[in-house]
Predict the structure.
Amino acid sequence: MLTVRWREDLNGLQRLEYFVPRRADDWTKAAAERCRDIIRASWSDKSPSAPGNPPAVVSGELDRSIVVRKVNVGFIGSKKAHATTAGAAYARMLEEGTIKMAARPFVRPAAERTLAELPPDPRKIFSIR
């Protein structure tokens, strides 16, 4: 399983919750959903895809495994955030490559693009893990 957690640094989260109550959860969910949408729009047209490009959809298992879910973060899970997860068994092998196959990243580029699309103020408090 491959996961990108959309969470705020805890100091930033506390500031955000103080100034904009109940919005932190909405923002992490929106970022995770945008990341999922970018991943789904980025699949390659050719199979096998060229090394360095996102993989192609062959069976649809990888595409169906891209989900947004709520996760615990912080001290003993004291805060909630959202994660974009690729649950297919081979997702990490595609993202990072193997000894015999070059990487075909699809999660990290989507996460970086999502982060770049955020307005400047929220971007300061988000991190990708």
